[in-house]
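Example record used in the benchmark description.
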Amino acid sequence: MSDRGTKLLEDLLSQNELLGKSQKVADAMYRLRWGSATVITGIVGESIVVIAPIFDEMPKKDPDGFCRRLLEINSDLGGTAAFAVQKNGAVVLQIGRGIRGLDAEEFGIMLGTVGKFADDYDDQLHAEFYE
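Model output (structure tokens):
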């Protein structure tokens, strides 16, 4: 799937005029900047994911309040994307779906949603919990 996934991802990025602004980081995986946020998109198996790494670790200051705040933001996002804490403690904003039936417009919406919200919330959450 990696060759086919890379081709599909390149086509989707190209149709959204983002291929030239993207950096290939692995087979079927690209990274691009969205304001102050980094957005990574990749195809894994039969799924596509768009993920924005926000923080490398949970805040030492009020981690319970931080998790509550992430859940509140997830509620505000209405299921369009969601914050998650990965097993290693990294905090990310992500969205994913199967690749079947995915078109360039929907892919562009996925990228834009994660990019915009990551750019909006990274500084806000940093100021609130990491300073």
